[in-house]
Amino acid sequence: MSLTADDLAALEAGETVTPAEAFLAASLDEEDELAALEEAAEHGAAAAAVELDDPDGPVRPIDVASYHLDVDGSGDLAWYAPQEIDAVLREVRRTAS
Predict the structure, then answer these.
(1) Looking at the 3D structure of the chain, how many domains does it have?
(2) Between 53 and 61, whose confidence is greater?
């Protein structure tokens, strides 16, 4: 799932968000999941791995399994645990300025 800085701020505040775009893995294979995360990261400030019954439905903070973003411009995604959302948001704001 692709997330904007505003989406991340809302999730950090404990709010529910409905991101504009969801990117689904073709299978449960790790390579397919990584491809979906990489595509999502290209379309937003960060990507999140979430588990939802409805991929177009709202996302609660509890739904997020992990956050991913390219912190150094290499294209490789750094992994963050859900409880590290403050670090993700800080990094997104740093790279946006």
Answers:
(1) 1
(2) 61
